[in-house]
Design brief:
By secondary structure, the protein is of the alpha/beta class. Helix content is 39%, strand content 14%. Bound molecules: adenosine-5'-triphosphate.
């Protein structure tokens, strides 16, 4: 270990005496050592106990004299690094340290404040001299890389994720349009045209471009806000891929709830796509028949004809399972049924349609959680699938990718087989993952439009990729050519929301918040959209009018599922099980409404709102919370229990057991739609869930959402109030959004952007 003889590196500011808020230790001494300051910062909650112990342990490992200025600098930097990791950053960016007030104490001359009397270059040099600090690839506890200090493990995760994503992005499945023979290029174009018919407006169909992107690259990242058609696009893409050659496709999402939603969305998309293709087929057939001037032969038979091999042998498809809803109102038929002698079965457009319809059944519908896919090993942080035991699949689709943290992305990419493709879906503007990193945001970072641009995002293609995508889609993309496209060739952002029409309040508010556009935010609220409702926090703390209004609304909104439970109770009393509402119906009804809080603790946090609403529902005799697990109590699981199959974030209800109505059981709906019943006493740690945090609501949607902001946020609370939090809360609502807050808090939060320190964006876009 090399020790440097340098002037004092940390200037210790004498403590201010006589301040009541000081710890006794801090008050008693004029110039406390850094060890004492660490303790004091922990008392002030500027550090966690873990941060302090991390700093002390590393100083011990380094073997420094505790009172030396080197030791003090090292401890301080280690504490700062640990604090960054506790705040979900991947590293400590040295240039972001406020050298004059590194601990960022609110009062500059706060009792334990200190400053670092070194330039940034000197600081970096000093740090590189410690034996615990190494360079990329070293086996040291800490790594200093390009001005960022990492815990070795996080540095490894980050470089590995960057390497894997870059490698996947560079894996060209089709490099240029010349790679196709003319027939194949035409076939793919025709299929794309068929799935994405030209719209009347002249705008680029980004869904079509995204699909083509994923046909050409082993990595495709399709992002966009709610309802922009990510699932619709990926369903069409999977269909195209399955028509090319049958693949082993797996669908995953980070949580059980998100996986269940993905399954539902894919099913819904498939059904819509089936109807759409059948309508197209019907149209084509009518056209051909008209041309042949011959009426459609009788199609009344509902029997499936034996599958017909195509005459020219170009395709040998089994159309047996392909059912067509005839527009003329005839019964469902197979495609084979409605072939007639008068129709040319080899017409390329007909064949393309039939091929697509036949392949629909090959698109998987069941989605699992990432944990289940990777194979949890009880009591271990490792998974069954890793680089030594890769997953068995050809294509992996990961939904809600914004929720995937850096360590999980590392594990997922490690387990991905060499030749597999990866498709990431998500909303890059949503809250970042609960744990370290902001992987999806870093992946999209290179598409951030320059500040001067009106657009927020701008596509970035290499010359070759722009031409290839143009050849496949017919869309004009050359204006997006960028000299350093890097990951841009694999990315596509969908802009147009099909859920929120142009003038719908929720969509407008979400967009205004996303752009941190205060003027637009005020305008949207002033326009008094019927789907947006504001409850003002009362300035007078004795009056709880805004909160009362929210509670009254919530009692009424939750009244629906509670009345279904009351119905069942009556049915059980008269022992008539025939008219019971199923647990799924009741849980679906409960999921129509949710209160989302910015905070966990306090009167306006999850804890306070849950307690107040429990009381309000009790007063209205809608619940009887005499015992802990009372009928109708909503539960959210707070930790994983692999044996029970319950995961952090799973939501269920305490309901009467159909088989033994005197017994109350926690009921959950699993991703495959089945009901899981668990004895309340066996539940892993859990909370009541009339209200939940915005963080926990990621991956879920509700018809109505009430969002609660604290009236007077503390300094610590302000750190959580960001535009991503607001945007995520707003976009959980499909039909109605209510907000209990105050204008200054809402607006200041809209201006605060989540910044997660990480080197991933640089590794993906600049190196
Ligand atoms: N090009 C389109 N034209 C018309 N409707 C569309 C189009 N694309 C998607 N939709 C419809 O918009 C709705 C939302 O689409 P989809 O579920 O694919 O979006 P998403 O981005 O996956 O949504 P979420 O954010 O909820 O995951 C669906 O009803 C879908 O049928």
């Amino acid at each position: 270990m090399t020790k440097q003889k340098t002037p004092p590196m940390i200037a210790l500011t004498p403590i201010a005496l006589g301040r009541t808020a000081l710890s006794q230790t801090a008050q008693a001494q004029i110039a406390p050592s850094l060890r004492e300051r660490l303790k004091y910062w922990q008392e002030l909650r500027l550090l966690t106990p873990l941060d302090r112990h991390f700093a002390l342990s590393l100083c011990d490992i380094e073997g420094l004299d505790n009172h030396s200025s080197e030791a003090e600098l090292f401890m301080l930097i280690c504490a700062l690094l640990s604090r960054q990791l506790s705040n979900q950053h991947s590293c400590l960016v040295l240039s972001q340290i406020d050298l004059a007030n590194p601990m960022m104490e609110e009062c500059y001359r706060a009792p334990a404040s200190c400053s670092i009397n070194l330039s940034l270059t000197e600081l970096e040099h000093q740090l590189s001299q410690f034996s615990a600090v190494g360079q990329a690839g070293d086996n040291t506890p800490l790594i200093l890389d390009t001005g960022c200090l990492y815990l070795n493990k996080y540095h490894f995760f980050e470089t590995h994720v960057a390497h894997k994503l870059n490698r996947l992005a560079q894996t060209e499945l089709i490099a240029t349009s010349n790679a196709f023979d003319a027939g194949t290029l035409n076939q793919v174009r025709q299929q794309l045209d068929c799935l994405f018919p030209a719209a009347e407006n002249a705008q680029i169909d980004w869904q079509k471009v995204a699909t083509a992107t994923a046909l050409t690259k082993a990595l495709a990242v399709i992002t966009g806000g709610p309802g922009t058609g990510k699932t619709t696009t990926v369903t069409k893409l999977l269909l195209l891929l399955q028509t090319q050659s049958a693949m082993n496709i797996k669908l995953v999402a980070p949580t059980g709830k998100a996986a269940a939603r993905l399954s539902e969305s894919i099913k819904d998309s498939k059904a819509k796509l089936h109807d759409f293709l059948c309508a197209q087929l019907s149209q084509q057939l009518s056209l051909q028949l008209k041309q042949a001037e011959s009426p459609l032969a009788s199609t009344s038979s509902t029997q499936s004809s034996p599958p017909k091999k195509q005459a020219q042998g170009q395709m040998s498809l089994d159309f047996d399972h392909t059912v067509v809803e005839n527009q003329t109102g005839a019964e469902n038929q197979t495609v084979a049924d409605i072939q007639t002698e008068n129709v040319n079965p080899d017409s390329s457009s007909l064949l393309a349609l039939k091929q697509l319809i036949a392949s629909l059944s090959l698109i998987p519908e069941e989605a699992s959680t990432l944990h289940r896919l990777l194979g949890v090993i009880p009591n271990s942080h490792k998974f069954r699938h890793d680089e030594h035991n890769p997953l068995r699949l050809d294509l992996l689709v990961v939904d809600e990718a914004s929720m995937v943290d850096l360590p999980m992305m590392h594990k997922l990419l490690s387990a991905l087989p060499k030749d597999a493709r990866l498709i990431l879906l998500g909303d890059q503007d949503q809250l970042a993952s609960v744990e370290a990193g902001a992987v999806l945001a870093d992946i999209c970072a290179g598409l951030k439009a320059p500040a001067s641009s009106a657009a927020q995002w701008q596509m970035r293609y290499s010359h070759e990729q722009a031409l290839l995508l143009e050849a496949l889609t017919g869309e004009k993309l050359t204006r997006y050519i960028h000299p350093q496209a890097r990951l841009g060739d694999s990315l596509c952002i969908l802009f147009h929301s099909h859920r929120f029409k142009g003038d719908a309040g929720i969509g407008l508010l979400a967009a205004a918040v996303n752009h941190a556009d205060i003027k637009a935010i005020r305008q949207v609220w002033q326009q008094q959209h019927q789907e947006l409702n504001w409850f003002e926090h009362q300035a007078d703390s004795n009056s709880a009018q805004g909160k009362d209004a929210l509670l009254a609304l919530s009692v009424s909104a939750y009244g629906d599922y509670l009345s279904l439970i009351a119905d069942n109770k009556r049915q059980f009393e008269i022992t008539d099980a025939s008219a019971l509402h199923s647990p799924k119906t009741i849980i679906d009804s409960f999921n129509q409404y949710r209160i989302l809080c910015a905070m966990r603790a306090g009167e306006f946090g999850v804890d306070g709102i849950n307690a107040a609403l429990t009381q309000a529902l009790k007063q209205r005799k809608l619940i009887d919370p005499k015992q802990e697990f009372y009928l109708g109590r909503p539960i959210i699981i707070a930790s994983n229990d692999y044996n029970l199959g319950l995961f952090n974030g799973d939501i269920g209800l305490i309901l009467q057991d159909k088989d033994q109505p005197t017994r109350l059981m926690a009921h959950f709906i699993k991703a495959d739609g089945s009901v899981l019943k668990v004895q309340p006493a066996r539940l892993p740690s859990h909370d009541t869930c009339y209200a939940m945090t915005v963080h926990k609501s990621q991956g879920s949607e509700f018809a109505k959402v009430s969002f609660v902001l604290p009236p007077k946020p503390s300094t610590a609370q302000w750190q959580l109030l960001t535009k991503e939090l607001l945007y995520t809360a707003i976009t959980r609502a499909k039909a109605q959004f209510y907000c209990l807050g105050s204008q200054p808090v809402f607006e200041r939060a809209s201006r605060q952007v989540t910044l997660r320190a990480s080197g991933l964006a640089r590794r993906l876009w600049d190196e």
